[in-house]
Amino acid sequence: MGEEFQLAQLVDTSNSEATLKEVLYISALMDPDFQNGPFIDVFSDIKRLFNGCYPGYHACNTEYHDFDHTCAVMLAMSRLMHGAFLTGLLFSGREINMGIIAALMHDTGYIQELVDHDGTGAKHTLTHIERSVDFLRDYYKKDSTYDAGNMKDFASILHCTGLTAKVIEMDFSSEKMVVIGKMLGTADLVGQMAGRLYPEKLLFLYREFVEGGVSQFKSEWDLLQQTIGFSEWTKQRLAGEFGGVDGYMIHHFRNRWDIDADLYREGIRRNIDYIRDVLSRHPDDFIEYLRRGRLNERIFVNGTGSGKRSNSKRPSR
Fold first, then answer.
1. Is the terminal CB of the chain with fewer CB neighbours within 10 Å at N or C?
2. What's residue 77's pLDDT?
């Protein structure tokens, strides 16, 4: 049954208000007394931040780590929590809020302050998690909603999105917070990799990596090629470091949508198959064959490459 559906058909995360509506609906399924108002306020502020309407900050100018990505991770996070709830893992209203707020704020570290006019937020690639933690702490510094212990948990939860993060080495106040951290790390991976436009947006990610000092990719082609291997690494990380919490996802889809499948897992498989096919069949003009959907103009007007792979040795599969 899952083959008949794609994630974007259920909720289009490029529509932030529709995504918010679904997250609030899911939250109410877990806690009928969930108070929408405080989270809506935070959501509105972070949306303003990305749009350049928040005091002291420029608009988001990273085209991979944009507000669409944030909404995708936020929705994936709420779905994971709901799936876990259905298996008997109960969350308080505060814990639900901490999970979805952490998802909402996890990439705020890419946003530049108004005094910063150099480059784009991509230059913060290697430090964006600490910057996101700093933004969250500053956001709540005059608000008594969350105490020092909560702030410590928030920091650990956000650090779970780091690709080399070791959850066992982090300082959480409870086992429930450990699970929420693992869920955010999982949501960040599956939320982006299952997205309908993930293959195309990898071209944006390459440009962010170049500016951010991530030097392991020789070209856009190389990044796409290594993404195939990265998908296998992701499976291992989800099952190992993150304790298989992605297994909760299917319970959400069964209960919420009557779909007996994990649509994130299926979306990732489709995207990796698509990337593999394009690189195999069109190695010298692969970008032309990534021209799908609304990203066409952004990729080709602002793009960095001609569509040719680099002259460096082609990586092995």
1. C
2. 98
